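step: validate -> pass
step: tokenize input -> pass
step: predict -> running
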Amino acid sequence: MSVRMAPPLPVIFLLIVQGVYSADDGWGVTYSSSHICALKDSTVIINCTYKYPPGYKITEVFWTKVDSSEAPDLSKDSEYRERIKYLGHKQHDCSVRLTDVRETDSHEYYFKFITDRPEGKWTGAPGVTLDVTDLQVESEGERVMEGHSVTLTCKSRCSLTDTSTFIWFRNTQTLNNRNKKLILPSVRRENAGDYRCAVQGHSLTSPPRRLNVIYPPDKPVISISPSGVIVDGDSVTLNCSSESNPPATISWFKEETSVGSGNIYIISNIRSDHSGQYKCKAGNNYGERESEAVMLNVTYSPRNVVASISSSGVIVEGDSVNLTCSSESNPPVHIYSWFKETQTSSVGSGQMFSISNFNSSLSGWFYCVAQNEVGSQRSDAVSLTVKGVS
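step: predict -> pass
step: emit ->
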């Protein structure tokens, strides 16, 4: 659930160091601070008072960053006139406000007043030095091992106290931490990302600081595509996935023999001798893990189909004859059919075909057809001829 935050209020950073700069003859300017450090985009107020001898009338007051008799009025400068506001008056208060401060505003500033008499001019020098800075996230390093501790610190050249309320971000998420330091006692890979910090009430956010969490490979997992039955001649892709940082080097093995590398292992035009157990190994500088083995079972239709006669002797009328059909296939042949070449329909079935009381009318050429779920193949024909009884 997202939480809408109230719009930030301007924050004023003042370093209160009392410093009085005056002359013994009654002229002088007193700045509440000789040095102010402000965050970029913030609003700065310089508190200031001035004095002059009786009998003079103030005709002009302004702030400048040039200590000279011809110092220009910042309120007339295009870089300042929309951002500077004189808060004082023409008696003794010379305070000024500068909004939306920029790093280019880092400079020494002076208050100047002019009276109604030619000699009645005064510049409060030395002035107030304004140092404009940004926020930075500092850490012990950009790489941290998963499970180790890391501390991120929101830093600036300005004096940010521990009582300030800080805001921390990881990527676009606002974190539940309001301290100057963000401590991650046991870093997880989910903690990786770009970290930024801000001070509550201020619009400035630091540049991102990348936290890179390193860890050894998780146990690899193999997926097979296509995931169904693999048929001889198909193209098969094995994918090895393992989360790690830095990315792991992947090696492939069939049984214990190395067969390839890379996340993807492709077998084009797969053959039966590709059948077997495959596994992958994932390794980086921090460890190595091995996957469970997966089985590739390459199916193919019957081949090397051969019909043979059980007896190599002379067939005599009245004998019993056995014909046998042999083949190679995966899965095994589930249908054997026998044919006589002069007939269109089968004359028998089974791996062994027996003919009892063989006679001359049965003579001819016989062949078998072997069939499994993938396909079928026929054998060459063998001749059965009866030798008559003399």
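step: describe -> Residues 110 and 127 are 5 Å apart (CA to CA).
step: cleanup -> pass
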